């Protein structure tokens, strides 16, 4: 037993050394996601997004109806009507930039004043929303001939998650990193070992090849965890909110790693050289990189694409990582994603076992 | 170890490698068709033959790298079908010279292979034996062809093998490097190892091997000492069309460029 552990350890350390010294592998699986994150983080796409406004209409009179219509004409606003508790909960989750409450008797009762709830330390959407809202209200009230004395809109700050683009981006980059590490980190190094005969050379020793395979997988998982740590650290510097359980986040990352390691081994098993492995790895990774909600929400895509991409493995992984990081989701809330990932893990494992060969 | 190791008369040890009626079929091709031979302890044994004659397949079956259809091969009393790991532990195999992890240094590789054979390894001594001491901290990809070849032999010696298998060890080497390699192989034999090698160079077989087996179409068509094979051919009445010269072009080449080892790159 001691000898087996020692052997595994020696092979594990050798695998780590080999990976770290392979500049190409390091670049594609570790450095690239980091660069992408920095680029997208600096570009900061949140300025281009719309203001999501939750509206609670407690007046339900002609004046409030006129106000709602006027607000709908504002392009910057996206409306989410609903009752007060639901809207406030959504605001706290960071799903709304602002919640507007129209009180009963608004427009007729001079004391009834609009309240705009915005997250404390409000981001620019909320500030922008308040400004536009005030202008719209003034217009409606002037047209209706009346209105309260004093400020038209009372702004109240609530404790809420102030989610920004970084909160969307970092979980996506984590998913991307896991995919790259599995697909490229494994496929390329193994195909190279196959082509040069290094795997056969291992097979010529009395040590069972499973040790080397296990050490390779373990080294990739450890590198993946290290990379997740680095990315989360940088994310926190950029103002990332990490709400959920770190252990659950790592667990889900591990399940994702199983899927993509399986795919990497399947490619490595099938391909005879790097030239065969590269296009296949890219065909698998590129569509997911851009369509699985890594950099932009899938909701922003045409609906037929949303349907196609809903069942991609990276979609499940990104969604689960994001729900854990942003909303503190637990295993129960993540069940659909976990199920989808489990199915993919089984598929890629079976394909890898069928395609893998040492020569 | 010196390049000009002294020639020794054919070894007369007990059989250490015994191959009996080995067969391997790939689809409709009978790649190895009933091969039997014995290699004696401390012998340098050559297997010659054109491409596709079945040399490599034969070696791979003996080494436990490829399943045997029928027949047996035993190394040092261990049957390869029954105990492939036992055979692998007793032999050294040199594959293509590139068959190593690019990112590790020579010392790291030898130590890693030591662990794979469950042995303590003196990497510095192994490297000194193949004259690669000054490359100990380099990676395989930075070595020249001859250096790679020598390193792959050092790696095959990690487990002090009873039998060392070399598959076309001198292919692609210049005449100086080839002669240097011959000296190295003689030195390995002088330290008590048995060597089995394949080659395309008749001159190499004649120079190095105590006995050679000539294979064609999956069978051994002749097996004797190089001189014995030549004598048998001459006894059959064969004469070269052109009278044998006292020197050939390679002699001229070596005379002009010297025995000194050149390292490319």
What attributes characterize this protein structure?
heterodimer; A: 359 residues; 5 strands; B: 265 residues; alpha/beta; six-stranded mixed sheet; four-stranded antiparallel sheet; 9 helices; globular
Can you offer a commentary on this structure?
The complex is a heterodimer of chains A (359) and B (265). Chain A has 359 residues and is α/β, with parallel strands linked by helices. Chain A has 13 helices and five strands. Helix content of chain A is 67%, strand content 8%. Chain A has a five-stranded mixed beta sheet, with helices on both faces. In chain A, strand 1 (51-57), helix 3 (62-72) and strand 2 (77-81) form a beta-alpha-beta unit. In chain A, helix 1 (2-21) crosses helix 8, helix 2 (23-43) runs antiparallel to helix 6 (165-196) and helix 3 (62-72) packs across helix 5 (124-144). Chain A is elongated. Chain B is of the alpha/beta class. In chain B, 33% of the residues lie in helices and 24% in strands. Chain B has nine helices and ten strands. Chain B has helices at 55-62, 84-90, 106-116, 123-129, 145-156, 175-190, 202-208, 226-235, 249-257; strands at 15-26, 29-40, 44-48, 70-75, 78-79, 91-94, 163-167, 194-199, 211-216, 219-224. In chain B, the strands form two sheets. Chain B has a six-stranded mixed beta sheet with strand order 6-7-8-3-9-10, with helices on both faces. A four-stranded antiparallel beta sheet of chain B has the order 2-1-4-5, with helices on one face. In chain B, helix 3 (106-116) packs across helix 4. Mean pLDDT of chain B is 88; it is low at 1-5. The chains are: A alpha/beta (359), B alpha/beta (265). At the A-B interface, helix 1, helix 6 and helix 7 of A face helix 2 and helix 3 of B.
